[in-house]
């Protein structure tokens, strides 16, 4: 079947769905303005979390780690605190050997100093544990794939930090303060850890926001979507539909209420609001690009471990980047006749708040909604129905109608 037809079939079977913790470039200015006047949702990291005080000395960083324990039978999920040292030495590897390859996803708030210091801390500790003879990389949502040569030159010491930022067009393509990311970039350069660009090029994403996935040339689409059939099946699943309705649709509605759906990521002005279909298309292309580029690196570097630094919204409830990476790995393992359990795919949310785990605009009035110090109040899983059970069905609430649950993440880490 033709690539565009395969993708179209997947969208026709998708009831409704799209959420973006990261607002595309030309809309980020609206986001920051919204934060300044007090509009809050999972779209916008809370002010209190954005500039949290944490020692800049990595040795002084302390944190609490929790394992998320989902429950599909009784729908009573819980969290269990685990020893911080055990977390960084064992749990984060999903109790596999430290030499095992895969990805550890560290879901961040882009303007949170606390989150980025934790990221640098974990990267350095994982590097020391694995030894410098073990392959390791840092995957970056913050950099678009076209700028991979710039990252290579920076890590190799061929260009300065200022040149790297200018050549990556950080101030226009990402815009979140680089100062908070500096510890990660400096660490990568000092330890010669490769920085890997994960994000879709904004020029390509803008085409999708205007015309949908069919707006991309086939040759361009193949750079991001390696297997169109599996990509389409992923968005057609009951689990993804539940994820989309809970996470993505409310985001689209909030964008629409704010009047920021008439500008693409590249700044192109639209005559009408971006359609939900195109909004969704942009979101899943974004996720697929990050998962696909991470997969490509781990495939080409057998036994290599990538630390993926991406927005919390792409990590939570599995059906963003994390589930897509798992799909790519399992497809490869099936073809190569390798066991599923060999690859690390750990999801970690850094300093999540109640608003991060609820649909956009639904948790603002709750006490402690903006604080990360109450992990027991988070929404820990998302239930989805069995195939054939409609959300409008009177049987939807029956335990027997549960198809499964999507855990918030494997682990939660809170700065202490």
From TrEMBL:
Coiled coil: none annotated. It holds the Pfam family Cofac_haem_bdg. Residues 1-20 form the signal peptide. It comes from the Eukaryota. The keyword Amino-acid biosynthesis does not apply. SUPFAM superfamilies: EreA/ChaN-like. PROSITE patterns: PROKAR_LIPOPROTEIN (PS51257). Residues 99-322 form the Haem-binding uptake Tiki superfamily ChaN domain. Keywords: Signal. This is Haem-binding uptake Tiki superfamily ChaN domain-containing protein. It comes from Chaetoceros tenuissimus.
């Amino acid at each position: 079947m033709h690539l565009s037809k395969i993708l179209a079939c997947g969208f026709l079977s998708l009831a409704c769905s799209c959420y973006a913790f990261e607002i595309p470039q030309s809309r980020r200015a609206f986001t920051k303005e919204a934060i300044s006047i007090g509009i809050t949702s999972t779209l916008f990291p809370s002010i209190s979390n954005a500039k949290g005080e944490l020692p800049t000395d990595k040795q002084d960083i302390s944190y609490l780690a929790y394992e998320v324990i989902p429950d599909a039978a009784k729908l009573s999920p819980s969290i269990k605190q685990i020893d911080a040292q055990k977390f960084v030495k064992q749990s984060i590897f999903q109790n596999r050997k430290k030499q095992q390859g895969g990805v550890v996803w560290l879901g961040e708030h882009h303007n949170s100093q606390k989150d980025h210091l934790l990221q640098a801390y974990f990267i350095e500790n994982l590097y020391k544990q694995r030894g410098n003879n073990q392959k390791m990389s840092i995957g970056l949502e913050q950099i678009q794939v076209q700028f991979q040569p710039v990252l290579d030159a920076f890590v190799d010491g061929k260009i300065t930090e200022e040149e790297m930022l200018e050549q990556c067009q950080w101030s226009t393509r990402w815009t979140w303060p680089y100062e908070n990311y500096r510890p990660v970039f400096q660490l990568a350069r000092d330890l010669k850890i490769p920085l890997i660009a994960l994000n879709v090029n904004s020029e390509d994403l803008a085409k999708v926001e205007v015309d949908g996935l069919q707006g991309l040339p086939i040759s361009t689409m193949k750079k991001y979507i390696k297997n169109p059939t599996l990509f389409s099946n992923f968005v057609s699943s009951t689990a993804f539909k539940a994820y989309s309705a809970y996470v993505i649709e409310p985001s689209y509605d909030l964008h629409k209420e704010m009047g920021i759906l008439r500008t693409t990521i590249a700044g192109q002005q639209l005559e009408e609001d971006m359609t939900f279909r195109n909004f969704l298309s942009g979101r899943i292309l974004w996720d697929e690009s990050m998962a696909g580029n991470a997969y490509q690196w781990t495939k080409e570097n057998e036994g290599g471990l990538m630390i993926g630094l991406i927005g919390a919204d792409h990590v939570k409830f599995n059906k963003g980047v994390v589930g897509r990476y798992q799909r790519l790995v399992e497809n490869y393992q099936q073809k190569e006749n390798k066991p599923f359990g060999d690859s690390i795919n750990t999801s970690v949310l850094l300093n999540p708040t109640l608003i991060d785990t609820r649909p956009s605009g639904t948790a603002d009035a709750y006490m402690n909604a903006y604080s990360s110090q109450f992990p027991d109040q988070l929404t820990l899983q998302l239930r989805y129905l069995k195939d054939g059970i409609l959300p409008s069905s009177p049987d939807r609430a029956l335990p027997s109608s549960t198809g499964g649950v999507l855990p918030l993440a494997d682990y939660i880490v809170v700065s202490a």
